[in-house]
Amino acid sequence: MKKAFCTLLILMSILTATAQLPGCDGNRYRYNVFEAFDSTLNIQYGQNYTMNQVLQNLKMDIFEPKNDTATKRPLAVFIHGGGFMWGTRQETFSLCMLFALKGYVTATCDYRLIDVPLVDSLTVTEGMVQAVSDAKAAVRFFVEDAATNNKYRIDTNYIFISGVSAGGVTASHVAYLNASDNIPAYLSALISENGGFTGNSSANTHHTVPIKGVINYSGALWHKEFISTGEPPLFSVHDSGDLTVPCFHGLTDAFPFPLYVDGSCAMQQEANLKGVYNDIFINNSSGHCTYFYYSPLVDTVMQKSADFLYNLICNYNPTVSVPKNIENEILIYPNPAREWIDIRLPAQLNYEVQIHIFNSSGILVKEIENNLFTQVNISGFPPGLYFVHLKNHPGPSQKFVKL
Question: Average pLDDT of the chain?
Answer without folding.
Answer: 88
